[in-house]
UniProtKB/TrEMBL annotation:
The gene is recR. One of its GO terms (biological process) is DNA recombination. It comes from the Bacteria. Residues 79-174 form the Toprim domain. HAMAP family: RecR. A zinc finger (C4-type) spans 56-71. Keywords: DNA damage, DNA recombination, DNA repair, Metal-binding, Zinc, Zinc-finger. It comes from Cryobacterium levicorallinum. Gene3D superfamilies: 3.30.60.80, 3.40.1360.10, 6.10.250.240, RecR Domain 1. This is Recombination protein RecR.
Length: 199
């Protein structure tokens, strides 16, 4: 324990996701000991982010305007929507340069333990987007964990009532991984998602 404001800084940093007590302490001391670290700039950027950044009215991605860059891009394919849990997932998929359609950010995943149900997510907004029959395929790209699977199952059942192709991202063995270290679920998924080898 440190006294006063130093402990307050450590406590505040420790509230950020993925930052434990030791990491919070390291960051706090980096700020204190590095003379060229611009604390004012960091504080201003944090305040600016709070003031300027919002969520896209259409897809729920982060944006400084009412609609995000992807939704405004006329080159994107409007017949395909990739459904993700969080805005950070959009960035991950965009880095692959494989997907040219639009996105829909749910704002989380179904998790009864955490009190998150379908009504807490942006599922109603997704259904509204699908109402005009422009979309031909919905790609469900939720995380391959318990909550992500529950969300994917819920969405799949909901979307089968519409005449839209519903697909789920494949999951399985990572490139460069060893079979002996893969868990049963990952190996099972790899078998389910296997494809024919063409010559």
């Amino acid at each position: 324990m440190y006294e006063g404001i130093v402990q307050e800084l450590i406590d505040e940093l420790g509230q950020l996701p993925g930052i434990g007590p030791k990491s919070a302490q390291r960051i706090a001391f980096h700020i204190l000991q590095t003379e060229k670290f611009d604390v004012t700039r960091l504080a201003n950027v944090l305040l600016e982010v709070r003031d300027k950044v919002r969520f896209c009215d259409i897809c729920g991605n982060v944006s400084e305007q009412p609609t995000c860059l992807i939704c405004r891009d006329p080159r994107r394919n409007p017949t395909s929507i990739c459904v993700v849990e969080e805005a950070k997932d959009v960035v991950a998929i965009e880095r692959t340069r494989e997907f040219k359609g639009l996105y829909h950010v749910l704002g989380g995943a179904i998790s009864p333990i955490d009190g998150v149900g379908p009504d807490d997510l942006r599922i109603r907004q997704l259904m509204q987007r699908l109402a005009d029959n422009t979309v031909q395929e919905v790609i469900i790209a939720t995380d391959p964990n318990l909550e992500g699977e529950a969300t994917a199952t819920y969405l799949s059942r909901l979307l089968t009532t519409l005449e839209i192709k519903v697909t789920r991202l494949a999951s399985g063995l990572p490139v460069g991984g060893d079979l002996e270290y893969a868990d049963e679920v990952t190996l099972g998924r790899a078998f389910e998602g296997r494809r024919e080898v063409t010559h």
